[in-house]
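Problem: given the chain below (213 residues), write out its structure.
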Amino acid sequence: MTPEQLDDIHKAASRGEVFAYFGYGSLVNRDTHRTDTFGAVRASVRGWRRHWQGRPQHVDNPISLLSVKAESDPGHDLPGLLVFDRLENLPDVDEREFNYHRRVVDPEAISVTNDLALDVPIYIYEGKREIAPDTGHAILQSYLDAVLQGYLYEYGREAVRSFIADTHAFDDTPVIRDRHAPRYMRSVTLREDEASLFDDTLTAHGVEWRDMP
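Solution.
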């Protein structure tokens, strides 16, 4: 974040015009943001862990939703991106995350690389519970590409492996190959080396691949 962005945030915060949200999935990828934000910084949050679950509304081919749940391990930090947005954009972010509940985050649970010292509301989005949790679901590759690219750009190659290893339910949630006909509405473009890195890391982890139905 540039000094100019920090100055804008401090001025807007003094007027009560800023909120922040912690991204841990596609929101880590700045290319998926659709509102005019003030900026974002790498950060981690205590008290939450990622997991895959089915979406609240099931269809013939249930699609996985990446969510978080309370984490009792006090030593667990969840890396992601802390995004500072304009308060007027909160309804738009809520609409994007319509399958999620917006939860308040204690500022003391957030760690950032630089001292922002900002008194603004901070949120995290937790997936709404699915209606039929035992029906099975699968991850869209186009969505996963956006998530992994975000972690790669922000944290480097090791973060790709760490995301897969640390996210609950990866071992029994298949991945649907839809990269060439993306079903995720904010899909991203990958370089060839990025696609190979993601696919090789997922295969090494033992994920089950499925063709797009």
